[in-house]
Specification:
Blueprint (H helix, E strand, L loop, with lengths): L6 E3 L1 H4 L2 H9 L3 E4 L6 H11 L4 E2 L9 H10 L4 H21 L10 H4 L3
Parallel strand pairs: 1-2, 2-3
Helix pairs in contact: 2-3
Length: 116
């Protein structure tokens, strides 16, 4: 049986009570932390879905990475959970593509056109 492709719900869009329910229920759904304004929703997402379902996101260059990182550190996670959120999850999810040597060459990125 094929695994379903991972689905990433973007930060401020993902951290609502209803979408946390989806995060808990669906094994291939993940969320990032970028732009989440309500700290308690991050706590709830990790408490209910687990650190393996949440990825650090900075939404750079639009948001500065320092406060986004501070939110993760302020959660007071166990070191292994903190490491999953900060890097382990993205490495796990991208592992098959990295091992296969696949890469995506982006066309004109949002960052390159944001200030035009």
């Amino acid at each position: 049986m094929d695994r379903a492709a991972p689905v990433l719900l973007r930060g401020r869009l993902a951290c609502t009570a209803a979408l946390i329910d989806v995060l808990v229920r669906e094994p291939n759904v993940f969320a990032d932390t970028s732009g989440v304004r309500y700290y308690d929703l991050l706590e709830e997402a990790i408490a209910r879905a687990g650190a393996r379902k949440v990825l650090y996101g900075s939404d750079g260059p639009y948001l500065h990475p320092a406060p986004e990182l501070a939110k993760i550190l302020a959660l007071g996670l166990a070191p292994e959970d903190r490491d999953l959120v900060l890097a382990g999850n993205v490495l796990r999810l991208t592992g098959p593509a990295r091992k296969a040597g696949r890469h995506v060459t982006p066309s004109i990125s949002r960052r390159n056109t944001a200030w035009v």
